[in-house]
Design a protein that fits this description.
The structure is a single chain. The protein contains ten helices and 15 strands. It has 355 residues and is an alpha/beta fold. Helix 1 crosses helix 8, helix 6 crosses helix 7 and helix 8 crosses helix 9. The mean pLDDT is 93.
């Protein structure tokens, strides 16, 4: 029996899948405009550990879906910097293909078996589903149009009797942050469902009440659609980094009209000298800079997933040494005869396993 901390209830709860014997799990995957850094990889290693525990120890069949975000502001900025803006759709695809392949290579290096991930859906393959969800929200008058874009109204959502702020205590005054579309929104906390097309950007047609609104989806709508399309609603577990609680996961829940997952599980940050590892801070480390990727996995698994983890060269070297000890034991096990005691097995625990 497995007990998990559920961010929805903010308590530990006994885990029981909706469908006996099967766990349906969704993980927020990478935005493929660049290499993921090892802070990102911590989240995916935690996800992998969870699905292994569910599968190997608890005996469940795990249907694990992880999305690929291949259209958002960061994708467009990088595409416009590095590729031909006269062919934005083609250039976007080339950029996404490049970093998706690198991402898959990186996760395999840290011990995540690609075959364990049942699906890696791309956002751009699910535009119609996103448009249908937006249309449903428009019909319910929870969404509205402004200057060719569509927004989710927090005021209308809460007026319908639904709660916004299930994962975090939302400070509505703090939502008065300035965004480039602030003047288009009816409320400061409203968020984009569909963004009107700008010159040099990829675009998709969006027909609504006899008019076309060319543009692209907002980030939050992508995961609401892909998670429920492949896993149904509700499904069992939604995972991600703690930084995704708000606004991303909170907005996902709102778009679905309530939590699409029974459990939300979040891992804490990887830090460098007390500061979150992030591209914006400029303190990132790519996996290619680490000579032993499995030692990094070992280091990650030594820390509790809900505690902040400090990354250091010393910690990595220590993990590398311990990994080499495990590799030595593994080699000895391959050669050992039944009942034979491997070297340095002072407790006899390894020998017990091979009797």
């Amino acid at each position: 029996m497995l007990t998990l901390y559920n961010s929805l209830t903010r308590t530990k709860k006994l885990f029981k899948p909706i469908q006996p014997g099967v766990v349906k799990m969704y993980s927020c995957g990478p935005t493929v405009y660049d290499h993921v850094h090892i802070g990102n990889l911590r989240a995916f290693i935690v996800d992998d550990l969870l699905q292994r525990v569910l599968k190997v120890i608890e005996g469940y069949k795990v249907d694990w879906v992880m999305n690929i975000t291949d259209i958002d502001d960061k994708m467009i900025t990088r595409m416009q910097r590095d590729y031909d803006t006269d062919k934005p759709m083609e250039s976007l695809g080339i950029l996404a293909d490049k970093y998706t392949d690198i991402f898959i290579d990186d996760i395999e290096k840290v011990g995540i078996n690609r075959a364990d991930i049942a699906k890696l859906p791309r956002a751009t393959d699910h535009i119609k589903g996103m448009q249908e969800l937006i249309k449903n929200l428009l019909r319910e008058e929870i969404a509205y149009e402004s200057e060719g874009s569509f927004y989710f109204s927090l005021e209308k959502y809460q007026a319908s009797g639904k709660k916004y702020g299930q994962l975090v205590d939302v400070d509505y005054d703090a939502q008065d942050r300035v965004t480039d579309d602030q003047d288009q929104k009816a409320g400061a906390g409203d968020f984009a469902l569909w963004k009107a097309q700008k010159p040099g950007e990829p675009e998709w047609d969006f027909e609504w009440v006899g008019k076309n609104y060319p543009g692209r989806p907002g980030w939050h709508i992508e995961c609401s659609v892909m998670s429920t399309q492949y896993l149904g609603m509700p499904f069992d577990i939604h995972t991600g980094g703690v930084d995704l609680k708000f606004p991303h996961h909170e907005n996902e829940i709102a778009q679905c009209g309530g939590s699409q997952a029974n459990f939300f599980i979040h891992n804490e940050f990887l830090q460098v000298e007390g500061e979150k590892m992030s591209k914006s801070v400029g303190n990132i480390t790519k996996l290619s800079a680490i000579k032993d990727p499995l030692a990094f996995r070992y280091a990650v698994l030594q820390a509790h997933y809900r505690t902040q983890m400090d990354f250091s060269v010393h910690a990595l070297e220590s993990a590398h040494e311990r990994m080499n000890n495990l590799r030595t034991y593994a080699d000895q096990l391959v050669l050992a005869q039944p009942g034979q005691l491997p070297k340095n097995d002072t407790t006899g625990s390894v020998a017990e396993c091979i009797k």
